[in-house]
Amino acid sequence: MRLTILRHAPIIGDGRVVGRRDLPADCTGAGALAPHLPRGAQVLVSPALRCRQTAAALSLTPDRAEPALWEQDLGAWQGLPFDRLPDLGPLPPQALARHRPEGAESFDDMAARVVPLLRGLDRDTLIVAHAGTVRAALSMVVGPAALAFSVDPLSMTVLRRAGSDWAVEATNITLGAA
């Protein structure tokens, strides 16, 4: 089974931490990715506006919107200017994955909601979702070190499963669409 996760198009935002804020996407150029997407795969999408807009720009008809695919809830950090985020200092990946901002979920919490969905997939799947969703998928292979991966807008990450074992085929594939 092959899992392809496409991060949504760039957010039309205000230069602040997004998390679960439901902001629109700039889908200009997204259509260039369409020929490179897997054919015949089921399509799942995060309910976020930016993900639904990206899917529509690619002429994808999602089989369903899946609430488990929402981006990480960053609680009190959502809406803050990036320069107002607290300095957590150097944290090992495991500690960073467990860190939970006030009123938020940790990366581990988010992965605990995303990973069971991914493990339950039984056929080739294309997901349109978030950077956090991509990192949660990568964590099935590399654990909390997944937090170190770059995930650009309109990039694809591909994993393969043989039996219960997952392998990373490719990460952060960009085709100049962004």
UniProtKB/TrEMBL annotation:
This is Histidine phosphatase family protein. It comes from Paracoccus aestuarii. Signal peptide: none annotated. It comes from the Bacteria. InterPro entries: His_Pase_superF_clade-1, His_PPase_superfam.
